[in-house]
Design a protein that fits this description.
Number of helices: 8
Order of helices and strands: EHHEHHEHHEHH
Bound molecules: inosine-5'-diphosphate, magnesium ion
Radius of gyration: 15 Å
CATH class: Alpha Beta
Distance between the termini: 26 Å
Number of domains: 1
Strand order of the largest sheet: 2-3-1-4
Number of strands: 4
Length: 145
C-alpha cells in the first residue's frame, strides 16, 4: 500500500497506518520515498491511455509518499475493505477514504487489487533486504492456527 502525497501532506500518515495496524495486519516493510515519473509510469502502467492518467502520475509524484508491505490472512481484501471505494464520495463511512476524503483524484491511499499485483508492486518498491520477517508476539491473539 501507499500513503499518497495528500495523505502525507495532510498529516494522515499515522492515522492511515494505525487503521491497518490495529486491524491486525502486520507491517513487514515501511519507508518514505519520492516516486519519480519512471516509477509512477511502471506502477500505474495499467491506467495508461485513460483520461485521468497524466493527472494521476502528476499527483503520485507531487510529494513524498509512505510505502508499506502488509501481511495477513486475505491481506489484499482486508486492506481494500479498510481503504474503501476508489471514489471517496461512494466510500462507506468507517473506511479511510469514506472518513477522510471527498475527491477521487485525492483519495489518500493506494492498495494492491490482487495478490498477483501485490507481488509485482512489492518487487517494484522494495528490495529483498527491505522486507523483514519478524515474529509478532500478539499473533496468537490475532491469527487462528
Ligand atoms: P484504486 O486506487 O481504488 O485501486 P484504480 O481504479 O486502480 O483505483 O485507479 C487508480 C487511481 O487513479 C485511483 O486511486 C485514483 O487516485 C485515480 N483515479 C481513478 N479513476 C479516476 C477518475 O475517474 N478521475 C481521477 N482520478 C481517478
Ligand atoms: Mg488500483
Amino acid at each position: 500500500m501507499i500513503v499518497k502525497p495528500d495523505g502525507v501532506q495532510r498529516g494522515l500518515t499515522g492515522e492511515i497506518l494505525k487503521r491497518l495496524e490495529q486491524r491486525g495486519l502486520k507491517f513487514i516493510g515501511l519507508k518514505m520515498i519520492r516516486i519519480d515519473r519512471a516509477l509512477a509510469e511502471q506502477h500505474y502502467g495499467i491506467h495508461k491511455g485513460k483520461g485521468f492518467y497524466e493527472s494521476l502520475v502528476s499527483y503520485i509524484t507531487s510529494g513524498p509518499v509512505v510505502v508499506a508491505v502488509v501481511e495477513g490472512p486475505s491481506a489484499v481484501a482486508a486492506v481494500r475493505t479498510t481503504v474503501g471505494k476508489t471514489n471517496p464520495a461512494e466510500a462507506d463511512a468507517g473506511t479511510i477514504r469514506g472518513d477522510f476524503a471527498v475527491s477521487i483524484g485525492r483519495n489518500l491511499i493506494h492498495a494492491s487489487d490482487s495478490p498477483e499485483n501485490a507481488v509485482k508492486e512489492i518487487n517494484l518498491f522494495f528490495s529483498a533486504a527491505e522486507r523483514l520477517a519478524w515474529d509478532r508476539s500478539a499473533d496468537a491473539w490475532i491469527l487462528e492456527d
